[in-house]
Amino acid sequence: MQRFRRLRSDERIRAMMQETRVHPKDLIYPMFVIEGENIKNPVDSMPGIFQYSIDRLDEILSRVKEAGIGGIMLFGIPVHKDPQGSQAYAEDGITQRAVRFIKEKYPEIYIVTDICLCEYTSHGHCGMVRGEEILNDETLPYLVKMAVSLARAGADMAAPSDMMDGRVAAIREGLDQAGFTQMPIMAYSAKFASAYYGPFRDAAHSAPGFGDRKSYQMDFANGQEAIREIEADIEEGADIVMVKPALAYLDVLKEASLTFKVPLAVYNVSGEYAMVKAAAAKGWIDERRIVMENLTAMKRAGAKIIITYHALDLCGV
Ligand code: PBG
Ligand code: ZN
Known about the structure:
Layout: H1 11-17, E1 27-34, E2 40-42, E3 50-52, H2 57-67, E4 71-77, H3 94-105, E5 111-115, E6 129-130, E7 133-134, H4 140-153, E8 157-160, H5 167-177, E9 186-191, H6 198-204, H7 224-236, E10 240-244, H8 250-259, E11 264-268, H9 270-281, H10 287-300, E12 305-308, H11 311-315
Parallel strand pairs: 1-3, 1-4, 1-12, 4-5, 5-8, 9-10, 10-11, 11-12
Antiparallel strand pairs: 2-3, 6-7
The structure holds ligand PBG and zinc ion.
């Protein structure tokens, strides 16, 4: 008889046998920065998450620093929105100013900037729009401008989340030409059109004004296509590739990790966070244990980096 239980018999041997561990350095904490002064707005659908104005960022950045996590992912929320999303690549845009502030006051914090236009466009789509159509090639130069502008502000990494075809190659070329040959790109490669982004769109004011994102984000029924998307982004020069959301897509993550020897990230998205928080608030689940189980599963499935709103809670700061 195989006696598996020999290696489960007490805490010490179980700890030694553990194949997967989640470390603070694996985690990236997403943050919402809003224009204005003295603002700390709770996001109703994401308990514990707030929109901060730059002058209130210290409160959260000091916690990030203390937690010793891998980095932060910045999402800016501008006051002014227009069809071209001009505040996404404005020198004094909200995200550019936030990056400069953080870089100067917290140089030890690694800053990943989400590259997408939906928080900045009046129509709320991730690209340029003609009629009801979301344009691909016409969008690319704007994404490049955004990435270069944030690199100039001091961002450490660019993470394009728009799902336009060819954007990784375009951004790589734009960054290189501007002298940022050392700036890595983490591509949201297999990003599915998902109802799990609902709370995020409240937090980032980025819900599409018409239609949905299904003409550019992936159909959640498709696993093989996800592998092709990831392959294309690697060929275009992505340094890290991402699967998003996480929990319902661990099969995709696992297959990607077996197929490609490239660092993988996974995004534990807003709806996943909201479900855990809601059940925990009702006393129906043990939040800490559930979060640890979820994040460990993501690493077991092959993720190197986990982007998660639970990061600070998990680190107990
Ligand atoms: C922007 C973007 C979204 C998320 C990350 N970047 C929203 C979307 O695509 O609608 C979702 C993150 C989350 O739900 O936590 N394109
Ligand atoms: Zn977008």
